[in-house]
Design goal:
This protein is of the alpha+beta class. Helices cover 25% and strands 38% of the residues. Strands 5, 6, 7, 8, 9, 10, 11, 12 and 13 form a 9-stranded mixed β-sheet that branches. Strands 1-2-3-4 form a 4-stranded mixed β-sheet, with helices on one face. Strand 6 and strand 7 form a beta hairpin.
Length: 225
């Protein structure tokens, strides 16, 4: 297959072909014959290609498919409990593609060399501003990742549940600290507000948003909420 690199992409064809991101996608291509691939844009972080926006022309077709390759991600249903009371933690942040602030689970990309549970364990303190002493119990809700929007991206999302179990006093302190807290990694331009909801109101809380997040609703269903 021919690969053309846009003039302002900043990568060579060799770098694209050898990236784990491109190789994983090409390995799933099956019997489709890609006549031409044009790299429109790229994102390199930590020395690894994290995103590639492609325009792909399939043999026999007259128009190109535009989509984005990106690393796998995690979506984390976060439960805080003292075994008698519980709340779920959500993040509110502006999403340029939605043109609005969106309420969602803790979520983020899986970095090079990480597994999904490792990524979830890293994203939780980053997005919720948790102290390093808090160690959540992490589990996959289903063994395989789900496709987020297969018409536009290859993004595969691992659905994870995180349970933060605390004594009653520590539970009260954490809930008071988190609700409405401003967090996020400044280097990644994150501006997050933490929102807490009782489990029995969580689904309505998300569905009644102007821009409900589908992955969050799926996570709630998989986790039994």
């Amino acid at each position: 297959m021919k690969i053309h690199i846009g003039s302002d992409v900043g990568l060579t064809e060799k770098m694209v072909r050898e990236s784990a991101l491109f190789q994983a996608w090409a390995g799933r291509a099956g019997e489709v014959n890609y006549h031409q691939i044009r790299v429109v844009a790229a994102d390199v972080w930590g020395g690894h290609v994290q995103k590639l926006m492609l325009a792909v022309l399939i043999e026999g077709e007259s128009w190109s498919h535009y989509f984005t390759l990106r690393s796998d991600t995690v979506d984390v249903v976060t439960v805080i409990t003292d075994n008698e009371r519980s709340v779920l933690a959500f993040t509110e942040q502006y999403r340029p593609a939605a043109g609005a602030r969106v309420m969602a689970n803790v979520a983020g990309g899986i970095e090079f060399g990480e597994g999904p549970l490792e990524a979830a364990g890293r994203e939780l303190p980053e997005e919720l501003g948790l102290d390093a002493s808090i160690k959540p119990q992490l589990e996959l809700l289903i063994p395989q990742p789900v496709l987020a929007t297969p018409g536009l991206t290859n993004e595969r999302v691992y659905m994870v549940r995180a349970v933060i179990e605390l004594p009653a006093q520590a539970y009260d302190e954490l809930v008071d600290q988190l609700d409405g807290k401003h967090t996020g990694v400044a280097a990644e331009n994150e501006s997050i507000i933490v929102r807490l909801q009782p489990p029995d109101k969580a689904r309505a809380f998300i569905t009644q948003q102007a821009n409900p997040d589908a992955k969050t609703l799926l996570g709630l269903q998989l986790a039994g909420f």
